[in-house]
Amino acid sequence: MDYVFLACALVSCVASLMVVRSRNPVYSALALMLCFLAFAVVFLRLGAPFLAAMHVLVYTGAILVLFLFVIMLLNLKEEELGREHPDWVKGALALLCVLLFGAIAVPLAREPRLRFRLPPPDEGFGGVEHVGRALFHQYALPFELVSVLIVVAILGCVVLAKRKL
Amino acid sequence: MNITWVDWISISPALAVIGAAFLVVLVDMLLPKDASKAPLEIVSYTGIGAALYICFRRLGEGMPPVRGFFGSVVLDELSVYLSLAILAATALLVTMSGEDMRRRKVHAGEFYAIVLLAAAGMILLVQSVNLIMIFLMIEILSLCVYVLTGITRRQPRSGEAAMKYFVTGAFASGFLLYGMAFLYGATGSVQLAEIAVRLREATPMALLGMGLLLVGFAFKVGAVPFHMWVPDVYEGAPTPVTAFMSVAVKAAAFGALVRVCVAGLPAQSAQWGGMVWGLAAATMIVGNLMAVPQRSVKRMLAYSSIAHAGYVLLGLAALKTSHAAAGAAIFYLFVYTFMTFGAFATLAYLGREVSFPGARAPEWHDAEDLFDFAGVARRKPWTAAAMTLFLLSLAGIPPTAGFAGKFMLFRAAIQEGHYVLALIGILMSIVSVYYYLRVVVYMYMKDPLEEPSQKGDMAVGAAVATAAFLTILLGLMPGTMHELSLRAMEHVGR
User: B11 contacts in A (CB within 8 Å)?
Assistant: First the structure.
């Protein structure tokens, strides 16, 4: 049994529940941070240190801080958060989610591929060098095309948000 | 790593368009503030023209597919064929939007740049043979289309449509990515050819991945039951943008879907064939029936574009037995490009400026309501004739392109024994005649309510005329393009 993985899975599940359960968006964002940190530990356990570091830097560092900024800028009042559903609706939806999870997880557990152990990865797997080689070799085209995606995002922001062009 | 000429050739059509997009932004910056925006159009045309030239060169007999960048993309007959449709739609949009976008108070520089980048994303999407590329290109084109939907930001309707599209689209992208993750988990590869080799039987994980992937694609092409966003978004977006996205996005997403099914999941054809069968039947029925009660012509055309997605899915559902029906579906996509673009462009051509009491400046309104079409034939006989042509073509009445497309499609479906789907398709086409002809009745047999005799924009008129010409041409001479589509489908798995 991999106790580190179990602990991380538990933490991320509880944290995700806190994200959707809490009424205050700031708490939700902070719980999301906890969830992301647990993911990062899972990446570390899987032998992907670079991915773990990027996950912390990009998601926890940049994106969540942005979330918090936006939440604080909006400064929502209690009545603007909207009404909650009654408890029985929430309970029914939760049950539906659990059933859906079961419908996916039970057949997946019988997946033949999960039964055999994969060979251990090569030396240096998941490190900066390995990831860099993959990005600039086999995945060079998608990697470069991400820049086009970013240009689109910048142009879109300018077009939609600038007061006067 | 070494990038060779072959790599560059494999992405050359998209490179030309991306280059033009960046040039547009630069030239726009250098232009004086009140100068004419014609140079931007010229730059856009150059990029599109170069890409079209490359595609036409590749159409020739027996051109081998060009693979590039470690098998990320392939320039084969299917991608060239669909790229032609995408580039044609882009060229038509660029043609019509010079003066038209000024009237809608849209800044031309960014508009052309985003349109070109969207086209580049679509071209690369139909060329992608690897899950990462497919996802990335879908994101590029979706992001562009979200922005284009909301580009008339002074109109609340446009902003609302963009927001709806963005939120639901991001959700659908999540499905797509989740499906891809499962497929990767089941096979250990993102390369479609590798996935096909390693996925001999249908394991639960592979099936789950495939199902989620189909949901994502069904959303992007607007198939029932993932079509809820289509009417609102198509109605809210500025009409030229609606014209563009209803044809180009569909062509690109269908291209990727066909490639994933044929090249990546050939062993699971029974499973995805069944799912696509259901999607096709539901999409044809719901799309056509929902179009009947619409009073807004724009919304009616939105539902009609859902219905047409159903016809194309019909061809895909028949793909598990042979390639003829899928080839006919690809040909139908090509035909659909011009008739739908033309119909939406006519709405823009018949638009007029309306000054509301209290508003500072008159606002641009496209002809959207049925009453806007009352008596058009008397004021603008040529426009009415063109619109009639597009509507007859959409309904599938000879001698238009729509008839040729539907005829080939239903014939192929019947020959391969898909009687139920073909029957649904034919019945629903008959239903569609009602709501298409209603617009024609309004144009020719009703008296106009008022006389808003405003001259239509020349450029929009040119786009309408071009689309009408191609609709007739493809109707009279469908042979070449149909054969090319059949050949494209035969070679796609190789």
Answer: 141
pLDDT in tens, A143-154: 999 999 999 999
- Confidence band of B417 (pLDDT split at 50, 70, 90): confident
**How many domains are contained in chain B?**
1
**Mind listing the pLDDT tens digit for each residue in B143-155?**
999 999 999 888 8
What DSSP line would sit under chain A, residue for residue?
--HHHHHHHHHHHHHHHHHHH-SSHHHHHHHHHHHHHHHHHHHHHTT-HHHHHHIIIIIIIIIHHHHHHHHHHHT--GGGG-PPPPHHHHHHHHHHHHHHHHHHHHHHHT-GGGTSPPPPPPTTTTSHHHHHHHHHTTTHHHHHHHHHHHHHHHHHHHHHH-S--
Look up tokens 């062993």; give the residue.
Answer: B267
User: Phi-psi region for residue B427, left (φ > 0), alpha (ψ -120 to 50) or beta?
Assistant: alpha
CB B486 within 8 A of CB B327: yes
pLDDT at site A82: 77
Q: How many CB atoms lie within 10 A of CB A16?
A: 15
Asked if the Cβ–Cβ distance from B147 to A137 is below 8 Å, we say no
Quick check: is B3 in a domain?
A: no
Q: Is residue B2 part of a domain?
A: no
Q: Is residue B345 part of a domain?
A: yes
B113 vs A: CB within 8 A: yes
Kindly indicate whether the domain formed by A1-77 is annotated with CATH number 3.40.47.10: no
Please tell me the distance from the alpha carbon of residue B494 to that of residue B492, in angstroms, as a whole number: 6
Domain span including residue B17: 8-355+364-490
Q: Are residues B136 and A146, on separate chains, in Cβ contact within 8 Å? A: yes
pLDDT band per the 50, 70, 90 thresholds, residue A95: very high
Look up the ipTM and state it. 0.90
Residue B315 in contact with partner chain A when CB distance is under 8 A: no
CB interface of B with A, residues 331-390, below 8 Å = none
In the Cβ-directed half-sphere of B78, how many Cα atoms lie within 13 Å? 32
pLDDT over threshold 80, residue B321: no
Residue B325 placed within a domain: yes
- Single pTM value for the model: 0.93
Between A and B, how many CB-CB pairs are < 8 A?
90
Interface test with A, best of B107, B154, B165, B271 (most A CBs within 10 A): B107
Concatenating the DSSP letter of every residue in A72-113 gives: HHHT--GGGG-PPPPHHHHHHHHHHHHHHHHHHHHHHHT-GG
Provide, as residue numbers in chain B, all residues whose Cβ is less than 8 Å from the Cβ of A160: 147, 150-151, 153, 162
- Mutation target to probe the A interface, by most A beta carbons within 10 A, among B144, B183, B184 is B144
CB–CB of B73 and A141 under 8 A? yes
Whether residue A48 contacts residue A56, with contact meaning beta carbons closer than 8 Å, is answered with no
The bridge status of strand B73-75 relative to strand B66-68 is antiparallel
Q: How far is B227 from chain A (nearest CA, A)?
A: 22
- Answer with the residue of higher pLDDT: B357 or B40: B40
Closest CA to B334 of B121, B231, B128, B486: B486
Q: What is the arithmetic mean of pLDDT over B431-446?
A: 93
**A136, A140, A152 member nearest B117 (Cβ):** A152
